[in-house]
Amino acid sequence: MVRTQFTGVPGVHHLTFESLCLGRSSQSIAAGLLCFWDSLNFNKDSEFMGITVFFLDEKVNLIHGIIPAGCANHYRLSLKAGSIVKVICFEVARCSSMYKITNHPFLICFIPPTIIDEVITGAPEINLQS
């Protein structure tokens, strides 16, 4: 498990995407929030399924995440494309080939205890233009 310490912020750690472990846990990531959009099921009269997000870590690994419809309103105001965020307490699941939109084998699933905050100081260096 590789942990990286935020520069200048003692004791605040996060995982790179290559070190994520399957399951629910208190893992944390620091990443660039590249973009997000509402996910709709066009087979069910455009039913709102949740919010899909793209995260980029400092090693230029891309992973996607899903915020389920039931949690979407709680997290929507915390999402800011182009920001560096810290995400804590989420589930890591295998990404089905049917829904795979990045090369990463896992996806991040927001669950009720998930916390997402913009990192203002001490963030890892992430090139959001990659």
Automatic annotation (TrEMBL):
Protein name: Replication protein A 70 kDa DNA-binding subunit B/D first OB fold domain-containing protein
Gene3D superfamilies linked to this entry: Nucleic acid-binding proteins
Organism: Brassica cretica
Pfam families per record: DUF223
Top-level taxon of the source organism: Eukaryota
Boundaries of every Replication protein A 70 kDa DNA-binding subunit B/D first OB fold domain copy: 29-117
